Amino acid sequence: MLKLSLGLSSALSLFGLVKFLGYQSAPIQAVRFTLKPPAEYAEGSVTGVPEARAYIMRDAKGLYAISAICTHLGCTVNKAGENYECPCHGSKFNGGGYVLKGPATAPLDRVELSLSGDGKVVIDTSKKVAADARLVV
Ligand code: FES
Fold first, then answer.
1. Which residues line ligand 1 (CB under 6 A)?
2. What is the pLDDT of residues 61-78, one digit of tens each?
3. What's the CATH superfamily of 32-129?
C-alpha cells in the first residue's frame, strides 16, 4: 500500500512538473494599429475598428476614439443607434461613452489617435486620453 501511495504521489509530482515546464504565457495583444488616412473619416461618422476594439469618430473639432471594451468586465460593446450596448450584462453607454445603464459605472475609455509618418491615422489602445482630446487634421 505504501509503494502504491508513493508511486501515485511521484506520478502526480511528475505530471505537475511537466505541466509547469510546458507553461506558455498568453500571446501579446497588439495595441497599436495604423488605419486609413484622416480624410476617410467624415464629420459625423462612426467607424468601428474591430481589431483595436474601438470606434473612431469625427466631430467639428477633429477625430477621436472610444474604446469598445466595456468598463464592467471587459466584453466588447456594440454600436446600437446613437448608443453602445454591452451584450454580456446589459450596460448601455451614450454616444460619448458615458454610462446610461449599469452594471458598468465608468465611461468607456477614450484612446489616443495620432498620425503615422505617411499620414495615416494610428490608434493606440494602451494610451488613455481626456474626453475632449482630438486629433486635428
Ligand atoms: S461586461 Fe459589459 S455589462 Fe458586464
1. 70, 72-75, 86, 88-91, 103-104
2. 999 999 999 999 999 999
3. Rieske [2Fe-2S] iron-sulphur domain (2.102.10.10)
